[in-house]
Design brief:
3-stranded antiparallel sheet; binds zinc ion
Length: about 150
């Protein structure tokens, strides 16, 4: 499935990924992220399952699992090239390029998971600074400390 400028295909990170089929400029909208808005916290995400539930602003969640939302294939990365920005007029977020994105590049963003959620969701983004878990950028130093103290050193 593809929309203008993107296509979904197998990703080295996880499952199907969202890939650029043309170049994008910094700040350019890549694809809308459609879904059902939830005003209450959803049930805990199922460990090991792909998740399309995102807290797009405090107290507002979005379930992007519908098949007519190709942007749901965008994977998490510890060094993302896109971010999810809520369009309050349209009522849904957009994936927006953080910097220039080349055609064929995989489009990734920060899923913004909590520390608790991150423990069930390994990250395989493959970037140099990957913390090994899907977790919000501001929480990464806390996770690194947690892993340092909970792992046996060898
Ligand atoms: Zn990572």
């Amino acid at each position: 499935m593809s929309t203008a400028g993107t296509e979904s295909k197998p990703s080295p990170i996880s499952g199907l990924g969202l890939f650029a089929t043309r170049g994008f400029m910094a700040g350019e909208r890549i694809a809308p992220y459609g879904g059902v808005r939830l005003n209450a916290p959803p049930d805990v995400r199922t460990p090991g399952q792909p998740t399309f539930l995102l807290e797009i602003e405090p107290g507002l969640w979005l379930d992007g699992s519908a098949s007519d939302n190709p942007a749901r294939h965008a994977n998490h990365s510890c060094l993302p090239n896109a971010e999810l920005i809520l369009d309050t007029t349209a009522g849904h977020p957009w994936l927006v390029a953080i910097g220039p994105i080349a055609a064929t590049e995989e489009i990734t963003f920060d899923y913004g998971f909590s520390l608790a959620e991150s423990l069930f969701h390994p990250c395989k983004c493959g970037t140099k600074d990957c913390v090994g878990r899907i977790i919000a950028t501001p929480l990464r130093p806390a996770l690194r400390r947690h892993l340092r103290f909970s792992r046996r050193r060898d």
